Amino acid sequence: MKKITLLLSAIFLLAAVSTVSAQVRRQTETPRRVVLKANVLSPFALTASGFLEYAFAPHMSAQLGAFTTGASYKDVEFSGYGITPEVRYYLSDTKQAPKGVYVAGYGRILNYKLTVDDKEEGKTYEATYKPVGAGVAAGNQWIFNSGISVDIFMGLGVNGGSLKVNSGTEDDFDLGFLNLVGSGVRFRPGLTVGYSF
Question: What's in the keyword line of the UniProt record (predicted)?
């Protein structure tokens, strides 16, 4: 009887130590703080964009986005890139950044090269356009146990800048095009998929 009692006591003690050890491990596990992701809506705008987000506090994160693009509008061909620094505040009391509903403020720095081929005169006109801007956004980011992340957001911002003509005149460039890519009030929708670690 003593052996059975001793064996049951040992099993109970091991189970208790194992449970406490698992709880301590869960409490000391480092939460996923870094998210690497790509905007799956970007190809529809002939753009490739990606983001790196780092949660530096329970409710705060910093994100850096970058994109590259190349397309044409009427007779204007353009190529360029941009960066979007962003600070996010996560609103949940039960989840830590970078999970959950958030609001954000962001900046934008863009750099475009514009080219117009005037086939009638056999000339090529070139210009650069470097708008800067800022805006606000709101969204929700899910991070699953596998580490896969899904982030959906909508932003509203203002960009502005001036066209620098290298050859030709400003009249050679369709300024309506610039309103599409740079100046004025801009919506910023996004749906990213990525991995968190």
Answer: Signal
Going residue by residue through the chain, which has 197 residues, state the pLDDT in tens, using 9 for 90 and above.
Answer: 555 554 445 555 555 544 544 454 444 456 799 999 999 999 988 899 999 999 999 999 999 999 999 888 777 888 999 999 999 999 999 999 999 999 999 999 999 999 998 877 888 999 999 999 999 999 999 999 999 999 999 999 998 888 899 998 888 877 666 666 666 788 999 999 999 99
Six-digit token string for 106: 């962001």
pTM over 0.85: no
CA distance 90 to 35: 15
Please state, in angstroms and rounded to a whole number, the distance separating the CA atoms of residues 179 and 107.
Answer: 18
CA angle 80, 72, 83 (to 5 degrees): 20
| Under 8 Å between Cβ of 154 and 138 | yes
Pairing relationship of beta strands 163-167 and 132-143 according to DSSP bridges: unpaired
- Residue 182 class from Cβ within 10 Å (0-12 exposed, 13-18 middle, 19+ buried)? buried
